[in-house]
Request: fold
Amino acid sequence: MATTVLGHETHAAAAPSEKTGLWSWLTTVDHKRIGILYGTSAFIFFLIGGLEALIIRAQLFTPNNNLVSPDFYNQLFTMHGTTMIFLGVMPLSAMFFNYMIPLQIGARDVAFPRLNAFSYWVFLAGGLLMNAGFLVNAAPNQGWFGYANLTSRQYSPGLNVDFWLFGLQVLGVASLAAAVNFFVTIINLRAPGMKLMRMPMFVWMSFITQVLLLLAFPVITVALIFLMFDRFFGTHFYIPSGGGDPILWQHLFWIFGHPEVYILVLPAFGIISEVLPVFSRKPLFGYAAMVFSGAFIAFVGFGVWSHHMFATGMGPIADTFFALATMLIAIPTGVKIFNWIGTVWGGSIQYRTPMYFALAFIGMFIIGGLSGVMHAVAPHDLQQTDTYFVVAHFHYVLFGGSIFALTAGAYYWWPKMFGRVLDEGLGKLHFWLMFIGFNLTFFPMHFVGLYGMPRRVYTYHAGLGFDIWNQMETVGAFIIMLAFLVFLYNMVKTHRGAGTKTPADPWNGATLEWSISSPPPEWNFDTTPQVHSRDALWEFKREHGGMLPEPTHGTGAGIHMPNPSYWPLVTAFGLLLLNLGIMFSPKTGPWGIVVGTSVLFFGFFQWVFEKGYSEFTTPAHGAHH
Amino acid sequence: MSAEAHAIETSTGIDSRKVAIWTFIGSECLFFASLIATYVTYRGKSLVGPFPHEPWTDPATGKVLEPIFEIPLVTLGTALLLFSSLFIVLALYGAQRGNRKMLLGWLAATIACGLFFVGMQVYEFTHFVHKGLTLQRNLFGASFFTLTGFHGTHVTLGVIWLITMFILAVRGQLPPKRSLNLEIAALYWHFVDVVWIVIFPVVYLMK
Amino acid sequence: MDSHAKPHEHEHGHPTPGVYAKIGFVLFVLTALEVALYEITYGSSAGVMGDLSSVFVPMLLALSAAKFALVAMFYMHLKQDPRLLSGLFVFPLIIAAVVVVSLAILMAYHMAFAKSG
Reply:
């Protein structure tokens, strides 16, 4: 099968050379490098979010503590939540979208490589903007959900809310651009024979996630626009004195916010659905049911948002509707849990670190799901809402769920991305410290929440029955920190010195990424794979009597890859300047806006008309759905 | 977007850029839905006038503010935008057949309509401000100017896009094999028209 | 959907400029009807065909839906294009409609009760 890609325009290009140095990273359009950029940045932001959590837990270790001021505490929990969601879980998922989706569908890159780079640089800009508030002691402090009208100019006159507002708008652009890119990539760049119902489950869940991103982010964009107009132009969208209603913010935010939590967890579901089969030596149980339950969760997920608003007095009809819809989602979720168990059942279990995290995921997610169903019961939620019971719930699903799954994915895909398998002994130590620390931190929160400890309080009185639980939680948090230190040490130790290079397929994988070297060459596949079934690689191995030989890659001569470009970076910078310009316009007038818009347009037009540039889509002849 | 990425075989047989613009349009539906939903939510809830269809007497001064909408002007703008959709379809028809005159003529007509529409909106906005309706005045002002303002911004960006295409066409850089570039611009343009097809009755004609 | 993944070509069933112009005329007429409906319900000719206020909104929405469909199916070429593209438009429209209707109902109920505070 031909290795050249572009139609008429192909010329015998020189073999793509190994590029090194800072400039090669600033101008890269290679999905694998962009994935690593996302992962590295996300991991650093994640550690910052973790540090924020540790300070929170230290402050809450004893009653009436004064380690931090109430105002700083507000910044801590706001930034912890915002960071973990938007700068932690989402970009960690994006790391895997970037690295693995093209490999798993047998493509050479995504549909729009420069747009991909743009998404990353905009994400970085948003993350930096969000955190820049710390530099002027004005980090966001209004909670990650920014309820109106606390966020109005009147009640939040400082820059805190502005850093959050503009940071989130910028991040939204990154997410939307990436979502268009991955959506089109999955639709259009699949290898021949890779019908939709033959795609790896990670690709399916990621695909559904992109749909959620595309439909949910515009809503928060509008919500933030209204907030910006209220703060900067004197409108009253959320301000009662002008006839506005703060509840409008809650609705708009949660219409985004609920799909957002599925955006956070569906990629994790996909990773688990990859790891469990490989480490059970058994195909995923109920593939079709897994696809349709994922799609159902996403679709119904647009109809449950007001379960975050049971305490706002919506009335019995609305309460009932949203309670029932929320309970309905438990059904497809349950289907997935049973199918994961069915996958492992009777399999030949390989007790390796990825499997440990994946198995723990099932248990932790069930616990989080159960407390979730309790929240769905509206009258019960009136007791639970705004208490630590909610904090327990979402940490079980987002940490015990998403983070455990992402960690499983990290250990699983580490050899593919970096050429070495992480140390197994350290991996298991990481797991046990994490498992114990996580449960010690978050399980007591169920109790202390039902005993009446509210969320977002910087301290509490002694003798209310909260003390012992908070102490346990703080100890647990520091054990989690130890777990991360072990993880970091594992990364360093694994890559120090010569070490043995890992083969293409260290785990006996089922999917196409394991058919190419670890790490892959820039052009991924020497020849486009022809797919005949699900678990395509297992199928190939069966046809060839067992394991495949170690792949050797040519020089890549004759394969045209898209050139690097710095225009995505320039355009992203323009977008950042524009947002800063609006944000500081009360002080500086329109000049920031003018400069930002100019750089944005300049970068964009240069990008569109980049001389001699050819965008690039992989041929996938004769694929059927 | 003027890259030479034709004759690429994709899983669906559809050019990736065409799938991308439709994906973007789908996303934009939710953007405008949120703005429209807010307008509808706040309809009739303004504490003070001017109002869209009713007069309002200022209790402090006794001054009467007339209903602010002028249907004839907006209807003209609506018609212009609708015709611009027809014109760009004809321009694309010409582009696909290498008919330079048809392409340039109808594309120019489309751009003219777009410019008139934006001009009409600017006039309307200025007129409303003079009559006392500002962003800050009441919920009607806030939701109206935000909704139609963002729509107008989309039209403006569309006009810039079409002018760029026009310049390319003048330079002979829009031959039939590159007509997809115009088709994509046209889809965006039609979408902007379609949003107005919803805004016009919901905002201007409903009470 | 094409079974052979060649770049999509549509030679047959392609509307002519004449067809497009006719559709343009229909769009113009539908717009005129929308305005006329407004005028005879609330405007300068209000009441000339009786009190239409109860059917005004459904009729208006029907007219604009017809315009929407004509532009989408013919000008945006969805009628002749692969169904995937229609799906990419229709699915978000359904979600959008759900959002608009739900938000309007929930907020209307809420503001009615909040007012009494």
